[in-house]
Structures are given as structure tokens and as C-alpha cells.
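User: Hey, my collaborator sent me this sequence without any context and asked if I could get a structure. I don't really work with proteins. Can you help?
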Amino acid sequence: MTNNFSRRQLLLGGLMLAGTGALAACGGNNAPAASGSSSSAGPYPTPRNLAQPAVRKKLTARPMSIDIGGIEAQTWGYSADTGEPAIETTVGDVLQVDITNDLPESTSIHWHGIALHHAADGVPGMTQSPIEPGETFRYLFETPHGGTYFYHSHSGLQLDRGLHAPLIVRDPEDADDQDVEWTIVLDDWVDGIDGSTPEDQLHMLTGMGMGDHGDMDMGDHGGMDMGGDGGMMAHGTPDPALGGDAGDVMYPHYLINGRIPRAHRTFHARPGDKARLRFINAGGDTIFKVALGGHRLTVTHVDGFPVRPRDIESFYLSMGERVDVEVVLGDGAFPLTALAAGKDDRAFAVVRTSGGRVPAPETTFPELNAAGTFLTSFEPADRALVPEGKPDREVSIDLSGQMMPYEWGILTDGQSSPGTVREGQRLRMIMRNRTMMPHPMHIHGHTWSLPGSGGLRKDTVLLLHGETVIADLIANNPGEWAFHCHNAYHMETGMMSSLRYE
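Assistant: No problem. I've predicted the 3D structure and written it out in C-alpha cell form, which is a compact way to encode the shape of the chain:
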């Protein structure tokens, strides 16, 4: 890669503003540490060199105003002491992050996809006490695996307010022959639009306060109109490829790196450049179908781990999933489109390598019309394989729920209690989706190995309506670990459990 460091850093620095409160981060406010604030959550196995962090970051979670493309939104987000809240480390680095809470309620940070020690996982009531307003908390952990990750609040619906940012862990074993690299954050946005919040959406979904909005107009989307631009209830929106209803909330806006389609981001390169694109779905309720006009994409990593490269035209990315692709860029200006599955809307950006007409956001093209590829269809690269073996224990996981009343749940062997495992065991989780909706299921502190996909490593697995997925887990990280749907509204209404070591 020519001029590798400076060019890559320039691109990442400009593009990691994400679809989040990170947009306003350059005007950061760093409050002093609160009296009695904690630097850990108690005793835990300490990784090597924990006392000498290689990367230090100070963050503040706070209210802020952001511009998503000519639209100002009052929201919550992260500001940082070093400009962008995006974080970059290398495999084996120890990361130290001090987070100060300037919000009017408690918060936390979960390091999505990172296999870290229990006390740093960021789940209030399970791995730590909530970070109360005015307090500062220190997260300290090693980043053991390379890949594309992100961090976000694990408190209420704060993720859907924009409390998230990319976390990139560089892997020395990865090929370093790209000319450009872009981190691309997909998001759905309602917070601060006409005064609406994610909590308002949940209020509507659970059936409370419907009278406040008068007659409910089903609208063009078959949803329930909230009025204005503040979003609407999708009430189960069908998407044929997803085999059921695709989502619950019709967001007023869908973003790529914090911008709406009519004020889109443009990614600049040269004809013939080899680009690496790191995609993150940080949305609260939206599965995206992604394609780049005029190009086939070579998938190289899924949820951070390398896979056997395969060329595809488009792919589905559910909430919490990440995927890395490589592409040799043509000559011109090309649409980068992320369809909001089942919601008749899209996020949009442009990849430009030369002059030419900028494609319109509503542009359609063959790659976008092609059947989307699901990430569970890939096979792991040899260096990502987990040794094969028979499970020591099996648990049956049933995903349950309904729209009316709006309630979701997880049953483990028929019970609502957490699943259990012993250290060193190979646990087989047989997950069955008994509902009419897709659910991206996420495990903390571990990655699954999927026998049905040749042992593919994943921490977030999309289960379609009626689908059964078998996922193996090596119990090598003691503690109690959250296990939940990464649809923020499903998790908030009951689709969250845990895996507890005996």
C-alpha cells in the first residue's frame, strides 16, 4: 500500500463520524472524574500488561446537536478528547477508556464483539453498576482478535439515540495491499426529529399513549403514522427474502456515516484502486441490503474473523453484524446503497473515482436487484477455525414474541431463566425462531462457531422467521454474559437472557 499510514488515517478520520452523536464530537466536553468513580468493577482475571495501556481514550456521553444533512437533531452522543470517538487498536493492545456521564440518566459502554474479561463488558446489573450522571468509569481490557467492531451504550434505548462509534482492531496477519480503506456505519434515525425519541417509539409499540395521536393512518407503508417526520410504527413490515416481517419502526431517516441521502457522503479514490470497506450496522431496528453499483464485492471478514473470500453482488447486514469487503474500483461515480429491508427507504452514499454525473439516491442497479447474500453462508478461513468436537452440553433456545401486545422473550430449555455452562465445556445452543420476525441474536464475551456454515465464527447471528440455527461455544471466559436480540426494541421488551458459568 502506498503512503499507507497517512492516507488511511486521513480516510478513517474523515469518515468515522458515523451515524451518531459522533458527528458533533470535535466540540467535546470532558468533565472531570466524579468523586468515588470506579476504574474497574471488582476482581477479575487480568490480561497481560494491563497496567500499561497502548491506547488511551477519554469519552464523554452528553446531549448534543448534530447535523445529518441540513437537518438539526437534538440527541445524545460521544465526544472525545482526541477529536473523533472512533477507536483504533492492534491485536494484543490494552485499551483504556475513561467515560464521563454528562447525560441526565445512567449509562454504560458495551464493546460489541470483543472477547474481553467480564468486568469490562458494560452491561449494567450484570457486569457492573450503572454509570450515574456525573460519574466517570474506566474500562480496561485487551483486544485479542483483529476485526471490525463497535462500541455502544447498553442502557435502555440509548444506542438508538446515537451512542455508538466504530472500534477497529488491526490484525498484522491481514493482507495490507489496499489503496484506500473506509469504515461505513449504517444507521436508522429518529432521535430529535420533530421532537421524537426512541422512547416515544417504544411507547407507541407497547400500546401506551396511542390516543395522543388521534386516528392512526396506516400510510403507504402499512404502518401506523405518528404524524410529522417523527417516525411511525411499522407493525410488522414484510420483506420476502427475510421470510416474515422485517421491522417494527419506520424511521424518518436512514444514514451512511451520519448523512441522509440528499446530503450524502462521497468516498473518493482513483480508478483501479483496491478498497477495503468495513461495514457496521449500528441501527436499532433495521436490516439493510447493501450493494455498490457496477461492482462485485469480495467478502473477506465476517464479524471480525476472516472467511474464505467469495464474490457477491449484494448482502444483508442485520443489527450488530459487521462485514469487510474488498473491491477494485472502476472509473466514474457509483451509488453505494443500503436498502432498509421492508421499509421502502434507503441509506445512500457515492463512491467517486473520476468525473461524471452523480447518481441519484433513488437509483436502482443490477447488483442491488440481485438476491442478497446472508453472512451465515460464508465459511471460515483456516486461521479462524475452532477445533471440531462433540458438544458437552446442549441447550434449546426458543425465541418468542408478538406485536400485540408488544412482548418478546427467550426460553432456555423451556424456562425463562439463564442458561448455564461449566468452564472448558463445548456448549451447543440450538436456537429456534418461533416468531414472525427476524432476530439478530448476539452473545457477549464469546464468538460462536456455526457447524452449519463450516465452523463460521460469529458473535451476531440473524435468525429468520421459523429458522433454526445451531451455534457452538467454547466456554473459556467465566462470568455471566448477556445473550439477546440486537433489535433494540425487542431487547428492551424482554428478548434478553444470559449465559452463566456454574
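In plain terms: The radius of gyration is 21 Å. You can pass these C-alpha cells on to your collaborator as they are.
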